Amino acid sequence: MSTPNSDRVRGELLRQWRLAQELEPGALARRVNLSAAQIQQLESGGSSLFYSEAIKYNAARKVAAALGGDPDSVIRSMAGDEGGQSIEQMSLQVLDDLIQLSEQRKKAQQESSSNGWHFFRLLMWLTFLASLAWGAFWLTQHTDLAKRWLSLLKTQLAAVTAGPASAAVVAEASAPPAASPEASAPADSASLAIASLAGAMAASSSPASTSPLSATQVALSSPEALCQSTEQGTLLTSKIPSKAGDMVYIVPLKAGSVCAKDGTGKSTVLTLQAKEGRSVYGPPPWRLYFEHADQAQVYFQGERLRWPELPTRAIVLREVKPQ
């Protein structure tokens, strides 16, 4: 049911702009990430498809900008409205300012450290080139010994690819005979070093050492797979509920995917930009799975819920009956 505040949206102006561009409500809805029903409600009046009046005003401004019009011209001013901004709009504006300030400080720190990073990279390259030069000089002075080491290394690597069991057999069969104490000492040391290397490579290539992906990593492999997550999630409830729990409004602070699962098990996958809000309808309780563990704004039962202090990718929303 619409309220007097709902008439502040100049729906006739949005309709004129849309018809001038020969756009259907569905095509415009896909462009601004809303539903066709919400577009029609913005043009004809009402607020049942929007979580709050402030969110409806933001949607109207978003549609106006997409149609090339003035976003502020689609909202009628009202006396005593404190500058035309609601508490939710003011809080969102403060949040935007804090995020912008944080990005500016991060950029300044990166610029201040860029010179040191370039110097470090130059030093690493010089060290690498010096190591190559020393290696080339050493090989020229120990040609015979280098050839024997390379031959033995090739044999050991071939044994590793054949399997861990055959590596020891090939190493024993390919061990060169000792000609003299002076000649056998370096060869024995090289054989021990290479055998250790082959054993480590064989152990790392065995199936037992391969660690499977965790459930969280598998769940984040694609947006649709978010709904298959087995995380229990952090329980959040409304402190002062004023609405039923059949709708959730989600505003992520970082671009990514969100899976909303209602009480019947129906899953809805949303791919949202940063600070882009969407409403999801269904019976409670709700389970929300986020691609990122960063904070997000979640509105449930008429209020914005407090995000958990510890980073989390899953939350559970349980309905509290209004008093």
TrEMBL record:
Keyword field: Membrane, Transmembrane, Transmembrane helix
* One GO MF term: DNA binding
Q: Which domain of life is it from?
A: Bacteria
* PROSITE patterns according to UniProt: HTH_CROC1
Question: Which InterPro entries did the record assign?
Answer: Cro/C1-type_HTH, Lambda_DNA-bd_dom_sf
TM helices/strands, residue ranges: 119-139
Output this protein's name: Transcriptional regulator
Looking at the keywords, is Cell inner membrane present? no
Indicate whether Membrane appears among the record's keywords: yes
